[in-house]
Structure prediction request, 926 residues.
Amino acid sequence: MTAERNGAQPALRCRGLEKRFPSGSGRRVLAGVDLALAGGSLLAVLGPSGGGKTTLLRLIAGLDAPDAGRVELWGCEVSGPGVFVPPESRRVGFVFQDYALFPHLTALENTAFGTPGPAGLARAWGALQRVGLSEVAAQRPHELSGGEQQRVALARALAPEPAIVLLDEPFSNLDAPRRAGVRDEVAQLLRRLGTTAVLVTHDREEAFGLADRVALLLDGRVVRVGRPEELARDPGSRKAACFLGETNFLPGESDGRSAACEIGRVELLSPLAGGPAPRGAVEVLLPLDGLIVENSPAETLPAGPLPAGRGGAVAAELTRASFHGAFQLLEARLPSGGSVCVRSPAREAWQRPWRPGQRVGLRVAGPVPAFPREES
Amino acid sequence: MAAMSDSAWRGRNPSPFLRGAGLLVGALCLLPLLYLAVRALAGGGLLEVLLRERSLAVAGRTLTLSVSVALASAALGLPLAWLSSRTDLPARRLLTVLLALPLAVPSYVAAFAAATALGPRGLLQRALEPLTGIERLPEIYGFPGAFLVLALLNYPYVYLAARARFAVLDDSLTDAGRVLGAGPLRRLRRITLPLVSGALLSGGLLAALYTLSDFGAVSLLRYETFTWAIYLQVRSSLDRHTAAGLALLLVFATLLVLAAARRFEARSIPAATSAVRSRPPRVVPLGRWKWPALLGCLLVLGPALGLPIGVCLYWLHEAPAHAAAGLLPALSRTGLASLAAALATTALAIPVAFLAVRFPSRESSVLKAVSHIGFGLPGLVVGLSLVFFAVQLAPFLYQTLALLVFAYAVHSLPQALAPAEAALASISPRLEDAARSLGARSVRRHLRVTLPLLRPGLASALALVFLTTVKELPATLMLAPTGFRTLATTVWNAAENVEFGRAAAASLALLGCSALALLFVLRDSPSRRLTLPAEVPKASRLRSPGHPRP
Prediction:
């Protein structure tokens, strides 16, 4: 690989990647994935378990060959029609989900596997030091804790100074209390080294908390790419929103700027991809954190066309309330009989917790996304 | 009574009854070896016996044969294991089982078949003579025959060990090697081979162990290793002192090999770092190598399985009608002796298993080691020592069925111990505590809780000992009462007396028993776990950390 590392060129570009299992004929695991990643950035591919995330990484690394589509690393085609650079020659670092540390080699020998020679040993030693493991260099993998094994795997992937590092669910084998700490350390290290990295995960918090950009992989396609907060606010489709977490959907009628629904006339967000918000029959997404509960039962909404924006609160009755530490989860019944869920900040509960049976007002906190209603 | 055994179940201290039983079993296990040592050392001049030119020649032959068989087993077992576990070999499932079956062929049956088929004036030569005029084939008696037969029968030790290894070897390790820039040769040398080397070593050592203690093949093929030399010594010159000295040296060698095998097994590296397997093992497509690979497997299976079965069927077909005459009595005698041995061995295994699993201590681990001594004692040595013992100290036992059964029991105790211990270890002591809390006293507790749960384990132990005792030859030759011909001794004597029909009939009966025994062992072997009722493994998870698995 002689690709120049220049900032303008994407470090990784996938075009129309397809993969079936069993290869060529079976179920389509990847159905045309398009993805691009700038050098030095950290991309998280977020998708459900069994959704082809590992397959995507294996195609990028060359451990499997795609049935269709291309992979380019730093502008150099490594997989494509008639082209296949074997993984040995791709200069890709891979952190496997089970780490795949060689059980018969010490931590240092593992790290030095990809960097043969005395100079390589020095580099491997440096990599071990960077992950803070020089003290266990002489130990075998099964003598190390899960977190240490994970860091050895990372050091081993980084030691040959790969063009890109791929991490396959790197934190899923750690127990929950350790996970957050290790996650932050790894993210800091990757940032400090200016590494280009792709991380796949099914954990929303992990993807949002770590990555510069998040790509949502659903049904074998990347349906949306964006900064974590953009994605969280506007998932782009009903399906994506459902995957990202619990939300409320209310049917509404949109004029392209605002939509009328049971909770009043709400302002619509302009879509991430550009262009106007959908018109006509829509589904309005009301995030759990995007609703404000008010103590005073609101006046009944006037009949007829509703005013846009803050049209006051709608009256509702709380049917369930439970406390979860950081928030109180409420379920409110709307006058029509439908219900919505709301997360109310914990500090409100400290003052005066909401109780089931209470009559309250509900109000939307800001512009929300809406998606064209699908006839079912 | 209740108070006494109650204290046993308190946790740390076994009841005096259990302890006494354990001590008795330990003493019985040590008896053959100790008595042999006494006999060998008593007259003095042991070194002189061992340094005699003939002894050294015997030792040299034994060493040569064991090392060559071990190497050949590794060379055959490793590629066969890889083909059968990691490739799209045609008829893979059938071949996987067939390739392990040579273990079930008693060595004297294979040797009988090889000698009568490939020997001078044998079947092959007689078939070839009219066509080619060949009057002499390469010599089969001596080293070539013994090596061929033992290598073909013992390679499955390597094959099974390597298969078990390949089964847990994670593909992501070789993937990691690829991503880190290692080509196929470097991956083989640095990753795959080091990870299966433990299996190669321990399997090869087992093959060497069984070669050391083999009597059937070397005696029928006339290759004078320790066992055959000792037997000749006893039968011809009645020189008890030399025989005992050689036997002691043989035991020393087997114990050395056994210790080495144990050591390598204990030190072996786990094949993967995490218990979670990412995906099922990848199957390597053989492509145009498919049929050559199949041919290779058949070239091993042909002489290892096909030859003994084919030759036996041929002789049975050729034999005069009365050939099978003595078969039925021999069959019933074999059944009787083996059944008695199975019951006795399992009875001896129970106290040892209880002490080892429920009362782990220095004492019980010594007892456990002593109980495994039969594994390192060749059947011939057990037989020899007990003959000396009976003649000298207990003439009333000489040439009795009881002494034969005792020899079987010492020899096969380790086989009964493994399933008994596994079954006991999978029963949570909490279950007994629960029975106590419900007011059940010792006897009722054992009858209602422990024994029913132990039953599958004990049944395995019984079946295993029974099926392997059926084919035991050297101890039976030494100890069986006059006229008490079992299937094994029938084969051996008939082969010696050129009564091929009789040998063939008994051989086929033995092959059947052996195949059953092997299938029984293989059912458990990959994980060494027993098939127990569904609730038992769950209960075992509740065990306190104070009760480590053996």
Summary: Chain B touches chain A through 25 residues (CB under 8 Å). The CA atoms of residues 329 and 485 of chain B lie 8 Å apart. Confidence is low (pLDDT under 50) at residues 1-10, 525-550 of chain B.
